[in-house]
Design goal:
FAD/NAD(P)-binding domain, 17 helices, 19% strand
Length: 526
């Protein structure tokens, strides 16, 4: 019997998760990636000195569950766990630490400990309720479900609040407010924006999980996915830019490449965002076109600036000594978040930038080291386009700010500075530079990510969706990739093994609500 064929448009981690799952189910799978390597925002590079650099994503706590379900350890993926979920260092020398152990975390927060425990329970109640829905709920359905519950009205209102309003009303400690606000804002939604209150619950909901990072850098995840795909009989084609999608006369879909080559597949999964997928289809999917009109990306003009500092001798960072390999944030005050996001919206660099900070683990034979910084900059500058000179100036601005906050000299023994800015991400991701595909605003989450397509199917029976623009949203989770595979398998014939049924069930659970957010760390650029 001829095997069903599947074409996967894009080679990010969600696309690869879909590909591996479908290949193991017996489909003949081809991944089509426009770049010269797969991975998207998972980008590890070796410097000329031999030092490993992280050019994109850093933290893998949110994707660990899917990686384990796909048995990627059998294909060389090894994770190192860290009990510190996130650490925060402030300009006045204060620190706030959030451990996997909620009791330890609350105890170290002093007088705000009981209020923090209450917020943890609120977050668990919310995400537990979302997980109970058989399909991703819209906000209307969430409101209806909460209306009859004791305290439900107050919980729903907290989702609609700005994150800074919710946090300031809950805690006395300004450093704690800033820490949780900073973590929430890495959804690329400002702390003062209505509806960002949901993101303020992300870190409190993560207790019980661990922070983790792959040995060999973030690129080890797409490498393991690629190896698993090859072992299952699938293949990856790089340099394969998709320029059109169309229905085939005999059923299935036709994928046209920039080279003019046309490929026929029984099923196609698009991992690019819905507006671009709709554009590739032209007039073939009117319902999808109508849905795409009301979506927005880059509403807050936010893009990621990732800075890799290469050293001959790694710097000593005493403020991070409690767990040097964990995810750390360097910031001054909540006021800097308010003002900084406003400056970015206006097309200017934050005057007092904050940043994520990580020390990149190196192979035993490498003498040097690397520090990874991740901050935000405007996607579109008010004073002209991004250039390599402009990206380096922005990087120097962030380096100086982080050095001041940490109280260290980050330029001693510095060999090189490698920057990934808006121009870099626009080219690598073949998009507008927003790795979340859609803004993570409350009108584009859950069952509205995107409206009418949260189940990852489309009006064209042969076309399914995955990627950061699908529920549960941006970030490194793999949830939509697994759910897309489940959608394909439930829509047509396939070799239904027990393992495939198990993965399909896990996919539905992961993508049901905001499950991935519960353990989301610094996934993709955010």
């Amino acid at each position: 019997m001829t095997r069903r064929t599947a074409g996967i448009v894009g080679g990010g981690h969600n696309a690869l998760v879909t590909a591996v799952t479908l290949a193991r189910a017996g489909l003949d799978v081809t991944v089509l990636e426009q770049a010269d390597e797969v991975g998207g925002c998972l980008w590890t590079q070796r410097h000329a000195t031999g030092v490993l650099l992280e050019r994109g994503a850093w933290e893998h706590g949110g994707v660990r569950e899917v990686a384990d379900a796909l048995r990627l350890a059998e294909h060389g993926l090894e994770y190192v766990d860290h009990p510190l979920l996130a650490g925060f260092v402030f300009g006045d020398g204060e620190r706030r630490l959030f451990w996997s152990d909620v009791d330890r975390t609350a105890a170290e927060l002093g007088a705000d400990g009981p209020a923090y425990r209450a917020l943890v329970e609120r977050a668990r109640s919310l995400f537990g309720m979302l997980d109970a829905f058989p399909a991703p709920p819209t906000l209307t359905e969430v409101a209806a479900a909460l209306a009859g519950l004791r305290g439900g009205d107050d919980l729903f209102r907290s989702l609609l609040m700005p994150a800074e309003t919710l946090l300031s009303a809950t805690f006395e400690d300004p450093h704690l407010v800033t820490a949780l606000g900073l973590y929430a804002s890495h959804s690329q939604v400002p702390v003062w924006a209505p509806g960002s209150g949901m993101m303020a619950l992300v870190l409190p909901s993560g207790h019980g999980h661990t922070s983790c990072r792959p040995v060999g850098g973030s690129g080890a995840l797409p490498a393991a996915l690629g190896a698993a795909l090859a072992a299952a009989g699938g293949r990856v084609r790089t340099g394969a830019l998709v320029t059109a999608l169309a229905p085939a006369a005999a059923g299935g879909g036709i994928v046209t490449l920039a080279s003019g080559e046309q490929l026929d597949f029984d099923v196609v999964v698009s991992s690019v965002d819905l507006p671009r997928t709709s554009a590739l289809l032209g007039a073939a999917a009117p319902r999808m076109q109508r849905s795409a009109v009301g979506l927005h990306s880059g509403h807050f003009n936010i893009c990621e600036l990732t800075v890799s500092l290469v050293y001959s001798t790694p710097p000593d960072l005493p403020a991070m000594a409690v767990d040097p390999a964990a995810v750390w944030f360097a910031a001054d005050r909540l006021e800097d978040l308010r003002r900084g996001f406003g400056e970015v919206v206006a097309g200017r660099l934050p005057s007092s930038p904050w940043s994520m900070v990580g020390q990149v683990a190196q192979p035993p034979d490498v003498a040097g080291g690397a520090v990874w910084l991740s901050s935000i900059v405007p996607l579109h500058r008010a004073d002209g386009p991004w250039t390599p000179v402009a990206e380096r100036a922005a990087a120097d601005h962030v380096i100086d700010s982080v050095a001041r906050i940490l109280g260290v000299d980050l330029r001693t023994h510095l060999v090189d500075v490698v920057v990934s800015g808006p121009a870099t991400w626009g080219e690598r991701l073949a998009g507008d530079g927003n790795p979340n595909h859609l803004d993570n605003t409350i009108d584009q989450l859950l069952g509205w990510r995107p409206p009418g397509h949260a189940d990852l199917s489309t009006e064209l029976g042969w076309l399914h969706l995955t990627g950061a623009g699908q529920n549960p949203g941006g970030g490194l989770s793999g949830a939509s990739g697994l759910a897309a595979a489940a959608s394909v398998l439930s829509a047509g014939p396939g070799r239904r093994t027990g393992a495939v049924n198990r993965l399909s069930a896990e996919a539905r659970g992961l993508a049901r609500g905001l499950s991935a957010y519960r353990s989301m760390r610094k996934g993709t650029l955010r």
